[in-house]
Design brief:
By secondary structure, the chain is an alpha+beta fold. 28% of the residues lie in helices and 23% in strands. It is built from 9 helices and 14 strands. The strands form 3 sheets. Strands 4-3-2-8-7-1-13-14 form an 8-stranded mixed β-sheet. It has a 4-stranded antiparallel β-sheet with strand order 9-10-11-12, with helices on one face. Helix 2 packs antiparallel against helix 3 and helix 8 runs antiparallel to helix 9. It starts with 5 loop residues before the first strand and ends with a strand. The structure holds N-hydroxy-L-asparagine. N-hydroxy-L-asparagine binds next to strand 10.
Length: 329
């Protein structure tokens, strides 16, 4: 039908949307387009928070969270805190396409990706990520994702193998650091962090995908909302699709994209469904920063946000190029 294909993405990731558009416009599948679009962002290192060389964790290492979901078969493939592999979304797709699993994590996700032919192992650090990390260390390794009391200093790096043979590792057990809650300067407001993309192909089939380095100076091992189906993205071809970005640690408790799609299933317009999902989170966490977009089967789209101004991008047949929509809280 006339309104297809459609590509929607978080943020003004124009090249990513164009890359996905070329794929669906040439008649390939929604899954192909989502993978191509998110891959483009990984290669371009969108906002310095997607793909190799982006946001480091407390150990100074860059890792990748990525997800792909086929909204027709409801198959999902995802990788979480994956090390050493540049191609997050392609690794996620391999999980979906070839295995009966949904989510692989960490070093073993990397081993899977390499065994399946993706390039690696690769050092995902860049001079930018190392600079960020060096500054963070110079600033006394300011804990970024800890509650009020931090019982050990965070000037690692800490790797499990380094603790072998010692009863409780090498870190000081007595340091009490005060967390100055510097999070908002790292997450959100200055960083866009995640590409989450939804595509309808010419057949009207739907897919979503996500790729991100997660949160800057996260605790190593942290898995965000990125690889969680229903949180950073969700699609169901009977209803529509949703993508999310923001404080993943909070958002993943609410499965906002599942919420949005289910609300639309019950007849809610995208506009109300996105607002409702965001306000459910904001009622419990008034300081959270985040956003969702949604698109239903009719091609009607909307976004809602909290704590920042959100932009999402759309490309559809009646447009000459990508159009960016701005949403205010
Ligand atoms: C995360 N949701 O890992 C990602 C980060 C993000 O805008 O999207 N920030 O928490």
């Amino acid at each position: 039908s006339g309104q297809y294909p459609v590509v929607v993405s978080t943020w003004p990731f124009l090249e990513a949307v164009r890359a996905a558009w070329r794929v669906v416009d040439n008649g390939f599948s929604a899954v192909d387009a989502v993978v191509e679009g998110c891959s483009a962002c990984e290669e371009l290192r969108c906002d310095g928070t997607v793909g190799p060389g982006g946001s480091p964790d407390e150990n100074g290492e860059t890792t990748i969270d990525a997800l792909v979901m086929d909204g027709v078969t409801m198959e999902v493939g995802a990788v979480a805190a994956m090390r050493y592999i540049k191609d997050g979304i392609k690794a996620a797709r391999l999980v979906m396409q070839y295995t009966e699993h949904t989510l692989l994590a960490g070093e073993q996700a990397a081993a899977f990706a390499i065994s399946m032919g993706l390039p690696g192992p690769t050092n995902l650090s860049s001079s930018e990520s190392m600079d960020k990390w060096t500054k963070w260390k110079e600033n006394h390794c300011q804990p970024n994702f800890w509650k009020d009391v931090v019982p050990v200093d965070r000037c690692g790096p800490y790797h499990a193998k380094d603790f072998l043979g010692s009863s409780h590792g090498t870190c000081s057990k007595t340091t009490l650091m005060e967390n100055i809650k510097s999070r908002s300067s790292h997450v959100g407001r200055h960083n866009h962090d995640t590409i989450s993309m939804a595509v309808f192909d010419k057949m009207g089939n739907i897919a979503v995908g996500t790729s991100t380095n997660g949160a800057t100076f996260k605790i190593p091992g942290r898995v965000g909302d990125g690889p969680i189906a229903g949180s950073s993205a969700y699609a169901d071809d009977e209803v529509g699709a949703c993508g999310a970005t923001g404080d993943g640690d909070i958002m993943m408790r609410f499965l906002p994209c599942y919420q949005v799609v289910e609300s639309m299933r019950l007849g809610m317009e995208p506009n109300l469904a996105t607002k409702d999902a965001i306000s459910r989170i904001a009622r419990k966490f008034p300081d959270f920063v985040g956003a969702v977009f949604a698109i239903n089967k009719k091609g009607v789209h909307a976004g809602a946000c909290h704590g920042w101004t959100f932009q999402y991008s759309v490309r559809s047949p009646e447009m000459d190029d990508v159009k960016v929509y701005t949403v205010v809280p």
